[in-house]
Design a protein that fits this description.
This protein is mainly β. Helices cover 9% and strands 23% of the residues. The protein has helices spanning 10-14, 98-101, and strands at 5-7, 20-22, 29-32, 37-43, 48-54. A 3-stranded mixed β-sheet has the order 2-5-4. A two-stranded antiparallel sheet has the order 1-3.
Length: 104
Amino acid sequence: MCGRYVITKPVTKTRDLVKSVNVVNDVANYNAHPTQKLPVIKSYSNAKILEVLQWGLTPSWTQEREIRPLINARLETLGEKMSIKDRDRSIINQLRDIEKKGAI
């Protein structure tokens, strides 16, 4: 993953998948990148909700703003790395990766 991707009409495209939408605008973002607040489908015990989350993880053992937030991880090492071990995680399925499809 290169760290940038495209989002188009998140509310319209997820209407059949989620129970509700929490403060998400149905607009395109052709430059979704780390540290932005982006739409994510979050699963709760009673429903899936489309909401906005900030992309990135700052490890618990660092001082605030000491390092840049991590933006991705390898599935094979999720349980081994101290920076993401025992943390809540979200998996974001991107439809189009800018690096692979060419710059917009």
